[in-house]
Design brief:
single chain, alpha+beta, three-stranded antiparallel beta sheet, 6 helices, globular
């Protein structure tokens, strides 16, 4: 019996691998929702394959830029830059604005920009409508690119900011001018909807970014959310 089950498992594994190969080669057509190799539509409602497709975009800047081009994000593709006295930049874009205004334009890896687009569309704006019956019009950030080690230490591994693969978000301004700041409203007494909104943003960001760190993580993040697309996975 055990041998028969092992053979059945092997047959199912081989059948699955064969089907996956056929889909990848285009021999079998499946709806984009079920096709892991179909391009990621950043405007479409996220599904069970969104994370996999987003990871593919991170490794393919050309496909990533094409996906961004179908959204409201305004960006300029930049050439790669090798490491000299500064940090190397690969597959980066300069973002000027999206459907929201930013406190300033910024550099970002294309993967980070794609994750931002998903976050803005499917987490940030729905949360603003849910809590305030309004939309975010402006985002205040503390930057993306900084050629430094983690926490600015003299030694240790490079920060994700060193490759423009992270963004720090400080505040969100609604269409009516209401400002919700991480420092002012995360734990303020009576913050109410503002605090709830920020927590929804933190949780929503965890759906699309690999690392999300906020005030609950440590004092260094008391005034911002750190979002990055690094090698680790953490939501704190």
């Amino acid at each position: 019996m055990a041998r028969a089950l092992r053979w059945l498992a092997l047959v199912l594994l081989l059948a699955g691998a064969g089907t996956a190969a056929a889909v990848w080669r285009g021999l079998v057509e499946v709806p984009a929702t079920y096709d892991p190799w179909a391009p990621l539509d950043l405007r479409a409602e996220p599904d069970w394959l969104t994370g996999f497709k987003l990871a593919r975009l991170e490794r393919d800047p050309e496909q990533c830029r094409a996906a961004l081009g179908d959204t409201g994000l305004r960006f300029t593709a930049l050439p790669d830059r090798g490491s000299d006295e500064t940090c190397a930049l690969r597959g980066v874009v300069r973002v000027s604005r999206s459907e929201v205004a930013f406190s300033s334009g910024f550099l970002a890896t294309c993967g980070l920009a794609a994750a931002w687009t998903l976050f803005e569309t499917h987490a940030m704006q729905p949360a603003a409508e849910r809590h305030f019956a309004s939309r975010v019009a402006r985002v205040e950030h503390l930057g993306t690119y900084a050629c430094r080690n983690v926490y600015g230490r003299a030694e240790g591994r490079r920060s994700e900011h060193a490759s423009a693969n992270a963004i720090d978000l400080a505040a969100f301004v609604l269409a009516d001018g209401t400002r919700i700041g991480v420092l002012d409203d995360w734990a303020a007494a009576g913050a109410g909807a503002k605090a709830a909104f920020l927590r929804d943003l933190r949780d929503g960001a965890c759906r699309f970014f690999d690392v999300v760190l906020g005030p609950d993580y440590n004092d260094a993040h008391r005034n911002h959310f750190h979002l990055d697309m690094g090698a680790f996975r953490s939501c704190r």
